[in-house]
Amino acid sequence: MTSILDTNVDTTLHLTALKAAGVKTIIRYLSPINPSGEKCIKPPEAHAIAAAELRLALVCEGWGDFAHGRSRPARGSATENGARAMPRPLARPTTPPSISP
């Protein structure tokens, strides 16, 4: 049984069913490039996940593109700076993660 779900769509309407199916952690996305895009989590969904007593993991997608060989240190820095500027309840842990180019 899968206990971690990685998805690019809003899970709010499905949280009860996901929890009943054994999901314990939901992975969602942030993007300083397109923060209002469909793939990005919004505060109401994050709060609903917490209220359902599920864990939330966040992936910040930005300017670095390792999959296509276009990663540059400046792009990694831009992604890190974008993540740091995101709303605190969603993206800023007490100690920000280190992002390597």
Would you tell me the structural class of the helices and strands?
alpha/beta
Encode the helix/strand succession as letters.
Answer: EHEHEHH
Q: Quote the CATH topology.
A: Rossmann fold
Number of domains: 1
Written description of the protein model:
The chain has 101 residues and is α/β, with parallel strands linked by helices. The protein has one domain (4-91): 3-Layer(aba) Sandwich (Rossmann fold), CATH 3.40.50. It has helices at 15-20, 43-51, 73-85, 88-91; strands at 4-6, 25-30, 55-60. It has a three-stranded parallel sheet with strand order 1-2-3, with helices on one face. Strand 1, helix 1 and strand 2 form a beta-alpha-beta unit. The radius of gyration is 14 Å and the shape is elongated.
Please supply descriptive tags for the structure shown above.
single chain; 101 residues; alpha/beta; Rossmann fold; three-stranded parallel sheet; 15% strand; disordered C terminus
